[in-house]
Automatic annotation (TrEMBL):
Coiled-coil parts of chain: none
The name this protein goes by in its record: 4-oxalocrotonate tautomerase
GO molecular function: isomerase activity
Keyword line: Isomerase
UniProt entry tagged with the keyword Amino-acid biosynthesis: no
Length: 50
């Protein structure tokens, strides 16, 4: 099961969701695995929470 940690500057929630969706799609298509096996960990600093 792939686990991905994303570190980035402040972004809105929609941009963060889109990034995770695209990374998940890359694993699904490259490794031929189900999307629900990909885990994305997005540590969010307090100033980035909206």
């Amino acid at each position: 099961m792939p686990v991905v940690t994303i570190q980035q500057g402040p972004r809105d929630a929609e941009s963060r969701r889109e990034l995770v969706a695209r990374i998940t799609d890359a694993f699904v298509h490259t490794y031929d695995i189900p999307a629900d096996t990909v885990q994305a960990d997005r540590p969010t600093p307090a100033e980035n929470r909206r």
